[in-house]
Amino acid sequence: MSLALLAPIAVVLVIVGRIVVLLRRRQIRENYVWGWLGLALAVAIIGLVPGLAVYLTEFFGFQLPSNMILGGAVLLLLFIAFNQSVELSRLEDDRRRLVEESALSDLKLRQLAERVSACLLYTSDAADE
């Protein structure tokens, strides 16, 4: 087997292995795994079918396969950045909601403590008489 065929297989194995490790450690969520597995599959297909990169380059109108790969990488990174922005916005909303709920719980706890201390003062004053 030539190095040109072994390289994409090695890249795919490293990507899939790393994904499995991250999943087992719960460091990546399942919804992100599908994108990375799709990328690994695309690398494997383009690496194992050498003429495919040239065909896709001509089909999409690029001059060189490396230009097409770079353009695809830029689009992929833009997509990832967009998804991360959406996720960050959702997490910020969740954080804000949790802070508000915590503040309300703290207020209720303080009010309850004041009522309990008032009841204790009332009962101790009644016992003194």
Could you characterize what this model shows?
This protein is mainly α. The chain contains four helices and no strands. It is rod-shaped. The protein starts with a helix and ends with a helix. The mean pLDDT is 89.
Layout: helices, strands, pairs:
Layout: H1 3-24, H2 30-48, H3 50-60, H4 65-128
Helix pairs in contact: 1-2, 2-3
* Radius of gyration, CA atoms, in whole angstroms: 29 Å
Main sheet: strands, sense, barrel:
none
Structural class: mainly alpha
Question: How many beta-strand segments?
Answer: 0
What would the principal axes of the Cα set say about the shape? Answer: rod-shaped
First and last CA, distance: 99 Å
Number of helices: 4
Mean pLDDT: 89
| Low confidence ranges | none
What share of the residues lie within helices? over 70%
Q: Tell me what portion of residues adopts beta-strand conformation.
A: under 5%
- Encode the helix/strand succession as letters: HHHH
Which properties best describe this structure?
129 residues, mainly alpha, rod-shaped
Give a quick precis of the structure:
This protein has 129 residues and is mainly alpha-helical. Helix content is 90%, strand content 0%.
